[in-house]
Amino acid sequence: MRQMIRGALMMGVLAAFSLGASANQLEISASRELVWDQTKGLYEANGDAKAVRGTQAISADILTAFYETASDNQDVTRVIATNNVSFSDADLSGTGTRLDYNVIENFYELEGPNARIISKDGNAQAENRLTFDRANGIIIADDEGEITLQDGRLLKGDYIEITLSETEEIETVNARGNVYVRQQDGKEAFSQEGTYDAQTGKALLTGTVKIIDGESVLNGQKAEIDFNKGISKLIAGEGSGRVSGILTTSE
Length: 251
Prior knowledge:
The chain is an all-beta fold. It is 0% helix and 64% strand. It has strands at residues 4-8, 15-19, 26-30, 33-37, 42-53, 56-67, 76-89, 92-102, 107-111, 115-118, 122-126, 129-133, 138-141, 145-149, 154-157, 159-164, 170-182, 188-197, 202-213, 216-226, 231-235, 244-246. It has a 10-stranded antiparallel β-barrel.
C-alpha cells in the first residue's frame, strides 16, 4: 500500500517538515500543502514553498526534496524547485524557472529563460541554463551567457566559465564563441575567444578581433584590454598577419 502523509494549510498557517540531523537540518515549508511520499522517498511542498538550511535557502511555487528510502536518517540528497525560483547561498543568489540542486555534490543547475546568478562583484546570466559548482567555485553559462561586473563592464559569449575565489569573488572569466566585450566608457570589442583576469583587470581576446570606439574601428588577431587604464592594444597574427584601423579625424 502506498504510504503518504498530507499536510494541508488553512487560513495561511504555515506547515513544515524538519529533515535530517539537527546540525545539518533542512526545513521545508509551504502555504498550501506538504506531501510526504514514503514509498518514493520524497517531500513535496506546494504554494510559496521554501527550503532552508543555515545560510542556504531555496524558494519556488513547488519544491520537491528527495531522500534515500533505505537510509535511517532520511537525509535529503536532491531538491528540485519549479516556477518563480530563487535561491541564496551565503553571499550568492540566483533566479530562474527551474532549479535542480544536488545536495551531496553541492551543485546547482538553474534553468531560464534568463537564468541569473548574482555574486559580490558581478551578475552571470544565460538564456537557458546556468550551472554552479559550489564545491569548486565554478559558474558556467553554456548557452548565450553573459556576465556584467559591478562597474558596468560586460562580457558575452556562447560559452562562459567563471571561477570564484574562496571568498566568492570573481577571479577569471573564460569565454568562447561570438565573444563580445563592452568597457565602462562604451568601447566595444568582438572576438572568438576571451579571457579576463580580475586581479590584473586585463582581458586577452583572440581570433579575428575588432575593437570599436565611436566611428573608429581597429582589427587584428589578438588584443589586450586593460580595463583599469582604459588602454586597448591590437597585436598582429603570426606570418603575414597585420593590424589595421579606421580612425576618425577632426575636420
